Amino acid sequence: MIRKSSFLAVFLLCSPASADGVDLPLNGYLSSWTQSPGGVPVPSEINLPVRLNLGRPSGPGEARAVFVEKELASPAGALKIRADFFSVCPHGDAACAGTYFQAKAVLSGPVESLCAAYFNEADFAPFPVMACAGRLPDGRFLGVTLHRLPFKDGRIHDL
């Protein structure tokens, strides 16, 4: 039997966009890389575009979510990522003025990892910037970066 609170959480995450209809566009990139301890990251697959629209919550305690699933190349084999993006209106905030955002990345394949971060809107949009990695048996790290600007020649330009 599904408890009422569990059903409510599922309903809120899956319900339509906010009453005002204003979505938050999320536009960025995913890139995979390896890194030796003490070294710099070496890119594998770069600049896979992500284009999503995240609904805004319309009342206290509500949340909206969108996700993307991708498979990226790496020297250790296919690295899968599921990235979830949330907007959350705090309980007791009738106007949702304190809405905050979360990005969560789950890696599977040659490494297993879960990473998450909370953001204000200015740091979250147009796309959150964060990295998520796990350690390979040989000691290197294998990871994915969520980023706003495209990588060129192994580094981010225009910064």
Write the layout of secondary structure elements.
Layout: H1 4-14, E1 24-35, E2 42-43, E3 48-54, E4 63-72, E5 79-88, E6 100-108, E7 113-119, H2 121-124, E8 130-135, E9 141-147, E10 151-152, E11 155-156
Antiparallel strand pairs: 1-2, 1-3, 1-9, 4-5, 5-6, 6-7, 8-9, 10-11
Radius of gyration: 17 Å
Fraction of residues in helices? under 10%
Structural class: mainly beta
Largest sheet: 5 strands, antiparallel
Sequence stretches where pLDDT stays below 50 over 5 or more residues: 1-19
Mean pLDDT across residues: 87
Determine the strand fraction and express it as a percent band: over 45%
Count every helix, treating DSSP H or I runs of 4 or more residues as helices.
2
Q: Got a strand count?
A: 11
Sketch the topology as an H/E string, one letter per element. Answer: HEEEEEEEHEEEE
Instruction: Return the domain count.
Output: 1
Q: For the terminal residues, how far apart are their CA atoms?
A: 52 Å
Shape: elongated
From the structure above, extract its key features:
9% helix, mainly beta, 4-stranded antiparallel sheet, 159 residues, single chain, disordered N terminus, 5-stranded antiparallel sheet, 11 strands
